[in-house]
Amino acid sequence: MRALYLERTRTKLYSRFVGDRTTAFPSEHRNLRATIVGPDIGLISTREPKLHSQNTCSSMDYLLEVVALVLTASAIAIQLIMRRARKPCPANLPPGTLGVPMIGQTLGIIRAARANGGNQWIRDRMDMYGPIFKASVLCTPTVFLTGPTANKLIFFSSSMLRGSTPLSLKRIFGERTILDLHGDDHRRVRGALMELLKPAMLRQYIGRIDANVRQHLEEKWYGQTTITVLPLMRRLTLDIISALLFGLETSAMRDALNDDFGHMIEGVFAFPVDLPFTTFGRSLKAGRRARRVLEGIIRDKKSKLGHGKASPNNDIITRLLTLTDHHGEQLLTEEEIVDNGILALISGNDTTSVLITFMVQHLANHPATLAAMVQEHEEIARSKAHQEALTWEDLSKMKFTWQVAQETLRIDPPIFGNFRTAHEDIEFDGYCIPKGWKVFWSANVTHMDPSIFPEPHKFDPSRFASQSSVTPPCSFVGHRICVGIELAKIQTLVMMHNLVRHFTWKLRNKENSFLREHGLPIELQQKTPFSMRPH
Questions:
Q1: Exposure string for 15-49, b = 16+ CB within 10 A, e = fewer
Q2: If we measure between CA atoms, which residue out of 209, 297, 235, 284 comes closest to residue 227?
């Protein structure tokens, strides 16, 4: 009876306070949390600058969430200890420690991440234990893997390791994203998305993206002497993605979604404590609002399609609604369209905006690289008529610019890593990863390995002058092809083409570092006038 009482108490407290016992954690960059560049769309978080009062509120939220988490943990710790005692672990577990029951290393890694030391936290444990070690993060035994061999295991062992979004994140993004679908469902949804996001389909949108970028620069950059890059890039990429995905052209609706997505991102890596005053609770509320908006848009589009008032070419979501299977049924459900649309809007928005922001920083610190980029883009501009929109052929000539982007991804990936779940006992490097344990891989540690990339801290785009220059296989996580990589590439190239030709800049932060809570403030000077290209 006591065991039954403990179990019922644990369940009630667990469902009341904690959405899930496993979630990702912050990266060493304060406002950029975890993501992947792979077959799944990633999990990202960037924070906007906050006022002092907001910081005070955030600190109070953090304290309250820690208290709630500890109270919940104490209610179920005895039960977990009893379970662990009944279920012995293999003798050849990776080195490391699971720490105090329930708490583990959670508080330590979060403290490190808040102090910009998440990757250093991993490297310190690599120095103690080696490239594979165990820890406990938010109540979950987790094996940390680093290096090309580990990346190969994670990326190409889908039968043993599967993508695993914590339940708390499912409550934010939805149950039917490609992060969590497997087998036939995953292939069906991923195949539909890949079909609509492949280069042949995206070519028709390049002119629209070019026009959006030029309009953004004219409205937000032109005539300014100082700007903050990251929030502007986040808004630009959100506007582009929302227009292409959902056909959203209304500024007011974009503003509302932008605010809701900001709250949702904040909740991705907050303690999953579902109370009205917590970050996670506000995130869920924002997610419900955003979902209602997108569901209404889809209903409207279906109605217009049914009455012949809309074309599949209007936007990607409308085209998805027209896809059918061999039985003539709609290929994707409305729930799948909304869930993956939200995931794409949030993750695609943040990865691209952070990449562009880091490129702005590196170009300010490396004038020779900037000069080479300017030359590349001026040559392209000279081959075009006045105000002529960019084309796919123009983008294919921006080879050096993409090398700069890849080197930026290597040094400052907008990713920390990602969780997988072991679906069977896995033998790796002489150790056993038990079934049910989480596996976490880190991109930055591999990217900064001097045995793979000589002088890893040196910014050198020539590393990517040819495919053979990046060795061994799986050493550069940026080569993992995600669903939206071509769209991200187009946005990046179009933005840099317009930016380097018309503006010069220098960093306002004398330390020349990208402090994300500041969003990279720069001093701006316009080189040449330009006018918006027609839509």
A1: eebbbbbbbbbbbbbbbbbbbbbbbbbbbbbbbbb
A2: 235
Mean pLDDT of 367-388: 94
In angstroms, the CA 240 to CA 345 distance is 10
What percent of the chain has a predicted confidence (pLDDT) above 70?
76
3-state class (DSSP) for residue 103: coil
What are the residue ranges spanned by the domains of the chain? 2-526
Q: How many angstroms separate the CA atoms of 528 and 535, rounded?
A: 21
Local structure of 17: helix, strand or coil: helix
CB 363 within 8 A of CB 377: no
Beta bridge pairs of residue 226: 523
147-156 burial string, b = 16+ CB within 10 Å, else e? Answer: bbbbbebbbe
Q: Are 346 and 44 in contact (CB under 8 A)?
A: yes
- The rounded Cα 145 to chain-centroid distance in angstroms is 19
Place of tokens 């869930």: 339
Cis peptide before 472 (omega within 30 of 0): yes
pTM: 0.79
Instruction: Give me 510's structure tokens.
Output: 């004398």
CATH topology of domain 2-526: Cytochrome p450 (1.10.630)
Query: Which of 167-171, 227-231, 511-515 shows the highest mean pLDDT?
Result: 227-231
Place of tokens 């928005």: 349
| Alpha helices by DSSP H, 130-250 | 148-155, 167-173, 183-197, 199-202, 206-216, 229-246
Residue 147: band (very low, low, confident or very high) from pLDDT cuts 50, 70, 90: confident
pLDDT tens per residue, range 482-533: 778 889 999 999 999 999 999 999 998 766 555 555 789 999 999 876 555 4
Neighbours of 190 (CB within 10 A): 17
Contacts of 37 (CB under 8 A, 6+ apart): 351, 409, 413, 415, 443, 477, 478, 480, 482, 485
Pair 464, 403: CB distance under 8 Å: yes
Q: What is the pLDDT of residues 43-86, one digit of tens each?
A: 333 333 333 344 445 555 555 555 555 555 555 554 454 454 44
Residue 210 has pLDDT above 90, yes or no: yes
Tell me, what amino acid is at 215? Q
* Chain-centre distance for alpha carbon 192: 21
The pLDDT score that the predictor gives to residue 469 is 59
Q: Average pLDDT of the chain?
A: 78
Backbone torsion region of residue 145, taken as left when φ is above 0, otherwise alpha when ψ lies between -120 and 50, otherwise beta: beta
